[in-house]
């Protein structure tokens, strides 16, 4: 019998982290020079398998237009390749977001499924 897969739960630390990410504003609007535009959280897909979502620590802030409402070339969910040509890759935007939050994560550590434990080690 297969071992059941553990359910993903959102911890208080993950919720707090996503709140901090959203407070930074939209990364795409910032690249366009629009300053801080209110954002919602986007889970980057570059570190997840097909049909899966990355951890709550693999998130970037995007305004509704750049996240889900804009068309191809504007919204990340309308076309990842055209979005990345204009605003940068998810990996680049994640790295930028983490640096803005005060974390210096090595490039090879960005893909870690336990990124949250690396960012917020238990003391």
Verbal overview:
- It is a single chain.
- By secondary structure, this protein is mostly helical.
- It is built from six helices and two strands, in the order ααββαααα.
- It has helices at residues 12-23, 27-31, 64-69, 80-87, 90-100, 115-119, and strands at residues 40-43, 59-62.
- The chain has a two-stranded antiparallel ribbon.
- It is globular.
- Mean pLDDT is 88; it is low at 5-9.
Descriptive keywords:
38% helix, globular, single chain, mainly alpha, 2 strands, two-stranded antiparallel ribbon, 123 residues
Describe the SSE topology:
Blueprint: H1 12-23, H2 27-31, E1 40-43, E2 59-62, H3 64-69, H4 80-87, H5 90-100, H6 115-119
Antiparallel strand pairs: 1-2
How many DSSP H or I helices? 6
Query: What number is the mean pLDDT?
Result: 88
Q: Secondary-structure element order, as H and E?
A: HHEEHHHH
Quantity of strands, as a count:
2
In short:
With 123 residues, this protein is mainly alpha-helical. The protein has helices at 12-23, 27-31, 64-69, 80-87, 90-100, 115-119; strands at residues 40-43, 59-62. Strands 1-2 form a two-stranded antiparallel ribbon.
